[in-house]
Amino acid sequence: MPLADDCVFCRILKGEIPCTKIYEDDMVLAFLDIAPFNPGHTVIVPKEHQHSSTAIDPEYLKAIITVAPKIGAALMRATGAEGFNIFQNNGRVAGQTVPHVHFHVLPRFADDDVQITASTKKYGDFAEMNALADKVKAVLNK
Ligand code: 5GP
Ligand code: ZN
To answer: What is the dotted CATH code of the domain comprising 8-117?
Structure first.
């Protein structure tokens, strides 16, 4: 899919908007997030416009997930972070604000006030869990 005119990450890929590049290869570009949760917060984007990770060529996903831990390790060494999160938002309800597939790599520090938490929910029983798993498996196996 060609790069889009109205997509901020496509515009970065085209060089129309500057970015602070961390890494680049044939498939992906990684750069510092402009509104970081922590210093070093990086986004990795495929070099084609795709709004959803369910539709993108899996080769791009492979390229991204291969480089993501390497970038995480580099961020740890460069910033002194003690760990990192890799995460990816799909759809507005999941927190996606830029409709171009991207993975976040977020260096983590002790007491950094980043909160990725939720109160856990409960299934009624194993039968309910099995019924849900069967439903998902049926879709996956279609
Ligand atoms: P999302 O919420 O869609 O998962 O993440 C999009 C991310 O892109 C946000 O963390 C946001 O700060 C970042 N972002 C949006 N516009 C720009 C930009 O122009 N430059 C950079 N470097 N990051 C951006
Ligand atoms: Zn795009």
So the answer is: 3.30.428.10
The two structure tokens encoding residue 56: 């993108």
If DSSP codes are grouped into helix, strand and coil, which group holds residue 32? Answer: strand
Asked whether 48 lines ligand 1 (CB < 6 A), one says no
The pocket of ion ligand 2, defined by CB under 5 A, consists of 4, 7, 9-10, 49, 100
The domain ranges of the chain are 8-117
Give 14-68 pLDDT, tens digit per residue: 999 999 999 999 999 999 999 999 999 999 999 999 888 898 999 999 999 999 9
Among the atoms of ligand 1, which is closest to the Cα of residue 96?
Answer: 3
- Please confirm, yes or no, whether 51 is among the known catalytic residues: no
d(CA 63, CA 1): 17
pTM above 0.90, yes or no: yes
